[in-house]
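Tip: read the tokens left to right.
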């Protein structure tokens, strides 16, 4: 039924043989009966519609064997006289006649341009009944109930809308402005183009500039962490210039590491190892960097894990949470690309029903990554969408379902309730679902990311992390602090906005980049 209606909408205005239209007319009537009164009104033909397919004709529709003429009669839809103003096409002849009547000059009744209806009661032209060509005796009075017809029985309103220039009262073809009559400019003058355009032959285009080769992901990571690492290594070098390692320098070093967001635990590990190796001795910046990289890697190695998919679940459900702007939607697109590229069937669900652009954005990612997409309207219940998505992904035998969510921390209570509900309804379909709850963290955030993990872990049961925007001016030290505290797996890192800019998290690489060392 719905498909048939959509078909009707898209074939609207196309000609069809009458015998094909009769069954559809019956179907349309049934659909109209199903629709709410207000929505039905929206689909009924309006007088201003240029042409209506017969199946939409509220006058009863043609019988299967109806002749073309009788079908046309059934189709006659006239604009009401009081709608003429809305249509914006009051015939010039009528206006001129009105003016002439006011001036007491009217001599012959004005003619009605074909395709225009008569004016009715209340109209200043009422009673003139000058709607057909020829003398007043040939005029057919307009009635509210009946379509206006000419003497030949042809429906005037059904005729094409062509102005009867020559018949206009007091008007001739000569005094109608035309390009020719406008003078020689019309044919000879250069067209005046809008601002921003120019005429003339095409200007030669400059040679394309060779693009700078794309940096490797580690180079981007290093560049992203450069602020952290260069600040840190610069300060460390300054600290140990001409100084032996003592309690004061160790305390100063600990402060520097904490300022770089690495966290107290990691800072103490670094200073502890350094003290055990070099206490009372000369220390170079390089010594500290090496120990720092070693200790950071020790913290990160246990959390650098691959994202485990249990494909015995069909689908494996991944719920993606995080504060808005941290890169959830983009990361979902990148994940979908990797998975569908590997031959898995992926569905993405636009559970961020709070922001229209997020739904659009995910749809684009779905198209780009050849993933199934499910979305709903703005403001709809996200948990309901998640439930439908799970059911549909199951029905379509998807391997992985990835659900986007909203991340409005500013309305924490609502957000919590929404996320909790999503987790709850998914659990109704499979007690283990969602199988993975991924949180995205923006690497430019710093200390705040630590609080974010705390909140989302409690609300949604986060069991894995992805840090995004490590290619920017990142403050990646916080990932070390988060890992030391929460010990949550870190699956990937985002090193750009492109579809391929998601890399598996490698503890040593990350540690080296923070410490300003090579790969
Ligand atoms: N440089 C860089 N930009 C990124 C990365 N990941 C995401 N972005 C950009 O960050 C911005 C926000 O990303 P989204 O994916 O819309 O973030 P979101 O969490 O879904 O945001 P909401 O829909 O508002 O909740 C976008 O402009 C992304 O292109 C990354 O790894 N590197």
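Filled-in amino acids:
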């Amino acid at each position: 039924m719905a498909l048939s209606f959509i078909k009707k909408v898209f074939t609207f205005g196309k000609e069809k043989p009458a015998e094909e239209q009769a069954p559809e007319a019956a179907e349309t009537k049934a659909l109209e009966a199903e629709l709410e009164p207000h929505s039905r009104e929206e689909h009924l033909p309006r007088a201003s519609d240029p042409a209506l397919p017969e199946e939409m004709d509220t006058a009863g529709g043609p019988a299967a064997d109806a002749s073309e003429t009788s079908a046309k009669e059934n189709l006659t839809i006239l604009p009401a006289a009081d709608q003429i103003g809305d249509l914006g096409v009051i015939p010039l002849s009528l206006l001129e006649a009105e003016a002439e009547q006011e001036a007491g000059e009217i001599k012959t009744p004005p003619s009605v341009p074909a395709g225009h209806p008569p004016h009715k009661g209340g109209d200043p032209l009422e009673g003139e009944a000058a709607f057909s060509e020829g003398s007043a005796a040939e005029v057919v009075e307009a009635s509210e109930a009946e379509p206006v017809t000419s003497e030949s029985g042809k429906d005037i309103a059904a005729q094409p809308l062509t102005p009867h220039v020559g018949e206009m009262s007091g008007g001739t073809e000569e005094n109608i402005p035309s390009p020719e009559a406008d003078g020689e400019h019309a044919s000879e003058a250069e067209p005046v183009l809008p601002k921003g355009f120019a005429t003339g032959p095409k200007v030669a285009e400059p040679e394309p500039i060779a693009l700078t080769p794309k940096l490797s992901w580690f180079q981007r990571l290093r560049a992203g962490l450069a602020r952290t690492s260069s600040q840190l290594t610069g300060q460390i070098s300054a600290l140990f210039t001409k100084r032996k390692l003592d309690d004061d320098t160790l305390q100063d070093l600990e402060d520097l590491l904490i300022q770089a967001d690495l966290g107290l635990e990691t800072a103490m590990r670094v200073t502890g190892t350094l003290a055990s190796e070099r206490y009372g001795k000369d220390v170079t910046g390089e010594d500290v960097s090496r120990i720092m990289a070693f200790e950071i890697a020790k913290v990160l190695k246990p959390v650098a894990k691959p994202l485990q998919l249990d494909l015995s679940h069909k689908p494996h459900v991944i719920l993606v949470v995080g504060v808005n702007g941290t890169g959830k939607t983009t990361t979902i697109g990148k994940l979908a690309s990797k998975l569908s590229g590997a031959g898995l069937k992926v569905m993405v669900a636009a559970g961020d029903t709070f922001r229209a652009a997020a739904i659009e954005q995910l749809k684009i990612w779905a198209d780009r990554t050849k993933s199934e997409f499910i979305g709903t309207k703005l403001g709809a219940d996200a948990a309901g969408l998640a439930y439908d998505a799970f059911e549909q992904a199951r029905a379509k035998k998807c391997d992985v379902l990835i659900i986007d969510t909203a991340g409005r921390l500013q309305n924490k209570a609502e957000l919590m309730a929404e996320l909790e509900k999503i987790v709850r309804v998914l659990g109704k379909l499979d007690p283990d679902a969602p199988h993975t709850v991924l949180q995205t963290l923006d690497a430019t955030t710093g200390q705040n990311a630590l609080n974010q993990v705390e909140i989302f872990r409690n609300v949604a049961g986060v069991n894995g992390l992805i840090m995004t925007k490590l290619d920017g001016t990142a403050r990646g030290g916080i990932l070390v602090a988060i890992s030391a505290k929460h010990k949550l797996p870190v699956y990937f890192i985002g090193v750009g906005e492109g579809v391929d800019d998601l890399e598996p998290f490698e503890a040593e690489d990350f540690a080296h980049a923070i410490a300003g060392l090579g790969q």
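The chain is about 40% helix and 5% strand. Residues 322, 324-330, 352, 355, 358, 407, 468-469, 471-472, 494-497, 501 surround guanosine-5'-triphosphate (CB under 6 Å).
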